[in-house]
Amino acid sequence: MRTRRGTRVGITSIVAAVVAVGLAPAVSAGPANAAEPAWNGVYSLKRFAASKTGTSLAARQAEPDFSDDYTFRSSCDGGTCVATVVDGPKPANPTLPQPPRYTWEDGSWVHRYDWEWDCWQGAGVPKVWRPAKSVAYYTPEGDGTLKGVWRTTIDGGPCDGTVDMNVAAYPVTPPAPGWNLS
């Protein structure tokens, strides 16, 4: 890229300028010389439920996209890096493991867990609870977001099968300080 004066500006200079003004994302795979990734700060996790797919009855049930804000803190110990949700809304399903923990695996933050799926079959019909296994992958993107897929496999009952849903995490940045003219 060239400036108006014809001086060549490299991508390194642009990145350095972004970091200097504090606009760099809080999620990364770490600098080129570091082996420890980090997922820190407040993120809005969006689940694209309206476009979910899979073999389960639950994959065909209409549902809107939904999101919630969560605070992540990561640490690395003995070569394993884990990002833990340290603040955010509690899930409605009491069988979900708390707090959620994401392990760094092959360039993505991965959350694997066992729980009970509460199969909804319509208003007034009791839910059927069945064992389920989920894995969610969040891969850091160059713009500071993370994108991936959340797959759940439900074992038995009317919702037997899989549910696949795209997911994303967007950094929640605090508002810029305003001018105080008083």
UniProtKB/TrEMBL annotation:
Signal sequence residues: 1-34
Keyword Signal: yes
Keywords tagged on the record: Signal
Taxonomic superkingdom: Bacteria
Name of protein: Secreted protein
Lineage summary: Bacteria, Bacillati, Actinomycetota, Actinomycetes, Mycobacteriales
